[in-house]
C-alpha cells in the first residue's frame, strides 16, 4: 500500500480556514488541537500567523477574532471553558508556540502597530531602551515606512495577546468588557504562571528530537541603531553568559520567558504618552542623535535604506486615553508585580552569618527585586499622567 505524502501547508491552512468559518468555537478548538498533534512544525509554522490573528483579531481591527474581551462564563460557559483551556499558559496553543520556538522560526511584526512613542522612535533611528526591540529590526529595500521587527514564536504570540487589549475593535453598542471576561482571566493566569509568587516558573515542555526549549540566541544587528541609554543587559545573560553550559542553572534558562512577558506587557500597555512627556523621557544621547538627523549630518550608516523622515519627533502626537478595561488590566499587572516582588525566599542583603552560610540568589529572586525598577516604574508613572 502506497504511503500518502502529508498535505502541503497551504492545503492545511485552507482546510483550517474553511472549518473555522462554519463551526462553533468549541469544535474549532478541538480541530485545531488535532491538527497541532498530527502535523509537523514545518507544516504548522505557515499556519501560525493566521491562527494568532484568528484568535486575537487582526492588528488593524478588521478581523475581530474570538472576542476574548467579551466572552463570559455566565453567558457562554462551554465556549469560555474551551477557549480558556486552549489558550491556557500550559495549554495546546502554548505547546505549539514551544514547538515552533524549538525550530527557531521567526515572524515579522510591522512597527506601524506598535505604541506611538515606540514607532516614532524607531522611525527616527533610535531604539527604545528595552531588550524586546534590540537586534530584531528588518529593513525594507527602500524607505522606512515598511519597517518591521522579527520576533520568535513566543514573542510574536505574546505581542498579539497583549495588543488585543488596545487594538481597535468594532463591538455592538452597550458591550462593556469586565474583569470576568476570558481575556482578563487569561491575563491573570499568565501572570501567575510566568511570574509565580512561590516556587519557580514551570519548565518549558521537552520537545522530542529537539531538546528543551532554550532562550533565543542573540542575533547580530545588520544596521546599527542608537539606544536611549546604551546597551541593556538582560537578567538572563547576566546569570548564564559566563557559566559553562554543562553547569548552567536550569532556572536561569527559564526566566527569559518571565522577563519577556513582563517587557511585552509593559511596552504594549504602559508605553503611551503625549509628545511633551515623550521628549522629556529622551536621554541627552538620544536628543543629540535626533538633532544630528535634523541637521543632516547623522553618521549612522543605513546601508541601502534612506534616512528616517526628519521631524518625526516634532510632529508626533498620540491622542491616547486608556479605556476602563485597559486601566483594570494595568491595575491587575501592577498589583501582581507588587506581590511578586515581595515574595522573596532569601535575604536581600547579607546578614551577620552570611560568611558562614552564604546565600546565593536564584535568577528568579534577582528578577523579583529588579522587575519593577528596571522595567515598570518609570513607564507606570507616566501612564498615571493620563
From TrEMBL:
- List UniProt keywords, sorted A-Z: Membrane, Transmembrane, Transmembrane helix
Q: Which InterPro entries match?
A: Sphingomy_SMPD4
A Gene Ontology cellular component where this protein is annotated is: membrane
Bilayer topology reads:
Single-pass membrane protein
Name the predominant localization.
Answer: membrane
* Membrane-spanning intervals of the chain: none
Coiled coil ranges (UniProt) are none
GO BP annotation list: ceramide biosynthetic process; glycerophospholipid catabolic process; sphingomyelin catabolic process
Listed GO MF terms? sphingomyelin phosphodiesterase D activity
Q: Output the Pfam families linked to this UniProt entry.
A: mit_SMPDase
User: Where does the protein end up?
Assistant: Membrane
PANTHER family (alphabetical): SPHINGOMYELIN PHOSPHODIESTERASE 4
Q: Identify this protein by name.
A: Sphingomyelin phosphodiesterase 4
Amino acid at each position: 500500500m502506497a504511503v500518502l505524502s502529508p498535505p502541503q501547508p497551504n492545503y492545511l491552512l485552507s482546510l483550517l480556514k474553511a472549518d473555522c468559518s462554519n463551526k462553533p468555537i468549541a469544535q474549532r478548538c478541538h480541530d485545531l488541537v488535532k491538527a497541532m498533534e498530527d502535523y509537523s512544525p514545518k507544516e504548522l509554522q505557515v499556519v501560525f500567523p493566521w491562527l494568532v490573528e484568528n484568535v486575537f483579531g487582526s492588528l488593524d481591527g478588521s478581523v475581530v477574532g474570538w472576542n476574548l474581551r467579551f466572552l463570559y462564563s455566565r453567558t457562554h460557559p462551554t465556549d469560555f471553558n474551551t477557549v480558556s483551556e486552549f489558550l491556557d499558559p500550559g495549554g495546546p496553543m502554548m505547546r505549539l508556540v514551544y514547538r515552533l520556538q524549538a525550530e527557531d522560526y521567526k515572524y515579522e511584526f510591522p512597527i506601524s502597530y506598535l505604541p506611538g512613542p515606540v514607532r516614532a522612535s524607531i522611525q527616527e533611528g533610535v531604539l527604545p531602551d528595552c531588550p524586546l526591540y534590540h537586534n530584531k529590526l528588518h529593513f525594507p529595500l527602500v524607505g522606512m515606512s515598511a519597517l518591521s521587527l522579527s520576533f520568535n514564536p513566543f514573542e510574536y504570540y505574546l505581542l498579539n495577546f497583549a495588543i488585543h487589549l488596545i487594538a481597535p475593535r468594532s463591538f455592538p453598542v452597550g458591550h462593556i468588557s469586565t474583569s470576568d471576561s476570558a481575556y482578563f482571566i487569561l491575563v491573570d493566569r499568565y501572570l501567575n504562571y510566568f511570574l509565580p509568587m512561590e516556587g519557580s516558573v514551570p519548565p518549558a515542555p521537552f520537545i522530542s528530537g529537539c531538546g528543551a526549549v532554550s532562550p533565543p540566541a542573540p542575533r547580530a544587528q545588520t544596521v546599527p541603531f542608537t539606544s536611549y541609554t546604551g546597551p541593556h543587559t538582560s537578567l538572563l545573560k547576566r546569570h548564564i553568559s559566563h557559566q559553562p553550559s554543562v553547569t548552567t542553572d536550569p532556572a536561569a534558562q527559564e526566566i527569559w520567558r518571565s522577563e519577556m512577558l513582563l517587557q511585552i506587557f509593559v511596552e504594549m500597555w504602559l508605553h503611551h504618552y503625549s509628545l511633551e512627556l515623550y521628549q522629556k523621557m529622551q536621554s541627552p544621547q538620544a536628543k543629540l542623535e535626533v538633532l544630528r538627523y535634523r541637521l543632516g549630518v547623522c553618521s549612522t550608516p543605513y546601508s541601502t535604506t534612506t534616512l528616517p523622515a526628519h521631524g518625526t519627533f516634532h510632529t508626533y502626537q498620540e491622542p491616547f486615553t486608556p479605556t476602563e478595561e485597559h486601566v483594570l488590566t494595568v491595575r491587575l499587572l501592577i498589583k501582581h508585580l507588587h506581590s511578586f516582588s515581595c515574595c522573596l525566599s532569601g535575604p536581600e542583603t547579607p546578614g551577620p552569618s552570611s560568611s558562614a552560610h552564604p546565600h546565593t540568589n536564584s535568577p528568579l529572586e534577582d528578577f523579583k527585586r529588579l522587575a519593577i525598577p528596571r522595567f515598570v516604574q518609570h513607564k507606570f508613572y507616566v501612564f498615571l499622567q493620563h
